[in-house]
Known about the structure:
mainly alpha; 0% strand; single chain; 2 domains
Amino acid sequence: MEKRVLDDISSKIRQLIASSPMADIEQNLRALLSSSLTKFDLVSREEFDVQTQVLLRAREKITELEARLAALESVSSKS
């Protein structure tokens, strides 16, 4: 019973907002926010996570290559 009453109230509020200038204001704010955000150089969370993993693998590879280089330099200096 309470859920139906709340749904009815919610529906009536949505109808009031849809028929009022609030709907236009909301659309204008969304458009303004969207255009403002496109000016920033933003990436999605998924792309950020992928790039983080790429960076971690690159760091591991660099560490490995540095160790191999140090070993080669060590062998070279002993000769």
